[in-house]
Amino acid sequence: MQLSTRVERQTVPEQTIRGYGHVMILIGIFLFLPLSGCVHQKFVSEPYPRWGKEVHVNQSESDGPLLLRMFSPANSVQATACVLLVHGMNEHIGRYGEVAQYFVRKFIVVGFDHYAHGLSNPVLQQADSALASGSGEQQVGDAYLAQSPLKNLEPLRRNLDRALRETIALCDVESESERPVFIIAHSLGALVTASYLMQLRDENALLKRVRGIVFLAPAFAVSEPPGWRGWMANPLIKLSFHAETHFLHPQNEPLPALIFNQVVALVTVPILDSLFEMASWPGLRSFLSPVSPEWVQDYLTDSEEEKARLRADGWIVRRTLLRFVKGIEAEIVSFRRHMKEFSTPYYLVYSEQDPITPAWGSRDFARATLQSHPDNEVLIFSNLQYHQHLFLKEPARSELLMNIVQWMEQRMQATK
């Protein structure tokens, strides 16, 4: 396995779209594919995988439950920093117990479940309570319905905001001085974190506490399914992304292209928004919400042991409301318009062949921001297709964890 720190400087081509006349056919294909979701069943039989101390966080009922998991070193006074772990889409922080065990050697480690994920999901929380009280196997196939309010990432950002503030408060209790705080964020969690930090422009005190962020396979691009599935789905995905990118936002293209792109966007975006919204309505969403396809697990990790864990993990949400999918796409487009303004120091890690969060999104981000801070660094897994770098086989996993610790320690030395 080769590791590389190069960043390609050539311009990534605009995601051009051909075959606009087939959009309605492609929409039909795309909406037909998830029909197997109507027979989707899912159960949990063992309690949620807890690690560390559990801290209950008070917040509004509309934002749902929020629990922090916290690990402290044996001598917590000697911890040099605090680390907040932010997981990706449809997974949960319970998976990160071994990761937390690694970082707790030197740092206080905190994690939490996103809105509608893990124990922040009412269906999953109730199932966990029932199992803890001695009840048998629990049906959790409807856990995805907690995504109903998610037309964008704002609920996830609010949970992150509360989790970060509580993390800082917990860290300050353990020390006489203000420890630096680092965020390690994966995939959709990286997009949530990046967009959140860009909204903190008027909160300098909070921004200063965050000394750096580690981006792991960040969702700065839309997914590109591989193989025959991609042959059918990618034209629609690219069309939708292209339309969102140009919708009411000219891209400095020549006038004929500008007019054409705006017309396509003005027609396509409302149609797709309406279709995805309708597919998320009660009565339709039960058979139009796609189940996570089997191919995804093949691109998450090269560890067969971890793949077996993923297949057996009932706490992962296996279905996704299309309203949420469309909202994520719009969030990616919005972030890319402003990403050159991102100023928090970062360590960016991504795989060249990752179809879940394709490399062009990370390359564009690095091109726009790499020079904005001297401590920004990029680690590229050349010719690798895997998405969850913290769950790779050894020795790659340990090497990456060591690199992350070294980068954080360098940041702490630079800010003394």
UniProtKB/TrEMBL annotation:
GO function terms (MF aspect): hydrolase activity
Top-level taxon of origin: Bacteria
Gene3D superfamilies the UniProt entry points to: alpha/beta hydrolase
Pfam families listed in its UniProt record: Hydrolase_4 (PF12146)
Domain called Serine aminopeptidase S33: residue spans: 79-383
Ranges that cross the membrane: 20-37
InterPro entries the record matches: AB_hydrolase_fold, Hydrolase_4, MAG_DAG_Lipase
Keywords, in A-Z order: Hydrolase, Membrane, Transmembrane, Transmembrane helix
Record's protein name: Lysophospholipase, alpha-beta hydrolase superfamily
